[in-house]
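Reopening this one. Same input as before:
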Amino acid sequence: MGYISFDKNQLVNLEYSLKRELIRTSRSGAYASSTIINCNTRKYHGLFICPMEDIDGDNHVLISSLDLSVVQHDEVFHFGVHKYPDGVYYPKGHKYLRDFQIETIPYFIYRVGGVLLKMERILSDDDRIMLKYTLLEAHSDTKLRFQPFLAFRNVHKLSKANFFVNTKYIPVENGIKLRMYDSYKYLYMQLSKKCEYVHVPDWYYNNEYIEEQERGYDYREDLYVPGYFEVPIKKGESVIFTAALNEMSPASISRKFNTELAKRSPRNNYEECLRSAAQQFICKRNGKTEIVAGYPWFGRWGRDTFISLPGLTLHAGNAKACREVLDTMSSEMKNGLFPNIGAGDDAALNSVDAPLWYFWALQEYSNVLPDRRQIWQIYGKKMKAVLDAYRNGTSFNIKMHDNGLVWQGTQGKALTWMDAVVNGRPVTPRMGFAVEINALWYNAIMFSLELASACGDAEFIERWKDIPERTKNSFLQTFWNADLGYFADVATYETADFSVRPNQIFACSLPYTMVTTDMAASALEKVKSMLLTPKGLRTLSPDSLEYKGVYFGNQEQRDSAYHQGTVWPWLLGHFCEGLLRVYDKQALPLVKKIAYGFEEDMTIAGIGSISEIYDGDPPYNPRGAIAQAWSVAEVLRILSLIKKYDK
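Same output, byte for byte:
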């Protein structure tokens, strides 16, 4: 058995198998995703999903699924699975599944009668999906029939039957090319062996996606099936189906599959799974290298990029990608701010923490350089631009006040990472002086002064040398409460909110900190006792009247719980770092328990990855995106911290 594997009893159990999903990505951001029995439960699922630059630059589902049937003695056995209204699943191809494993690539074993068939799947970095079918056993003449279910729509939308579909196709070698709508490029579907294509265009109505239904969205879709491919296959023979936006010589399909297979690293242990998962978030497109915040629905987020960048790259052995992402993001800075979402004229610059996390990402990157002064030489101008913008004031009332602390916020906006807004109002209002923003601010100034000193930048030193002490004194006076033994989450000149939230951990974990060891120990103990779960830190103490322990329901209900008790794995990185700074090796048993507690997640939700969030209440069910960049990144970083301290 492989490290990640499922047997027939698990696969045939829909309650079990439909909650386990698999995603594979290309370096351009294309992906293939479904459940482990290939029954789509989300509008974001599909066999071939890729960015459409000519339309909107977003990902589009071209092939929703490829239904396989085995034909023997004129009897047809259908291996596909679709959910239809009234709880109907048809066909029930999962009952033929005997084994699903991930050794290097995913493979499925089907058995029906005397037929034993293996299916392997690869998505190449040049955006080509390849499915290899090998007939392991057969006692009589056998044919394979492939029926593509097409959508040709944005991942966030659903397809409905219409009269505008172009039902024509054009033959190509061992296959066809077609496009449902003229705005799309042609989709090429080919086989490695000569085949017969039978054109019988039809709509399959009301495919249901149970995850969308649960999330309160439209969940029914009509899919277009142009026809089917049929090919004979002999025992021991392999046939490869491939789809892409460009034609391929059938003679080279097998070679291409084998070449791609040779590039893959085995997912045969916990850390290898995490490293492989990390690579999936790094996207190279149009000369840019970016971080996809999470699959299947997130794009690039500025805040998530800088928080997850060190873990995904440096702690996964890929410093080159770290530099490329830093350069891409640096080029998009505007008025001292980075795009939170979007790019260019469509960029939303509504993140107060993204520019400050930029400094932390640079700090982490500096640790792998032969000379840290390179950071100031390459990025110093950008760093100064951020600091000056915050000191002088920039958008959304982001400004350093006379007390040395950064104030932020405007009505109706949520600028920190706790950014859920319902009916025009932030769920977690944090206007004023936020604890992590000012911890990051102090760290950014101190790191800049360190580099400026090393590089002899006297002008910068003269301008900024007196600020850190002022910031530190104000920070301790504003946020620390000795009687309570922890830090306020947000404060104004009149009030301070001492709800127990995790944001105070950053004052204890960042390279430059304003707090004493005793303060850090006390605050971390409070966080540990009230917020720590096996899957991350709660965003609010269960003692609070505002606490919501389950993330469930429609978007308004989910957003209301998002930062009001929901558990976030990414927070564990800085929590563990704070513990190690305070307690050194004494903290290792707990830190190891936290880090290796996610090994069980390799076979839950997003297989081989870590989910975005978890419920605040036991049993801490995974929620949100099935694979989240900063969740994977920070667990990788914790594993690196363990190696550093465990010597």
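So the earlier flakiness isn't reproducible anymore. For the record, The radius of gyration is 26 Å.
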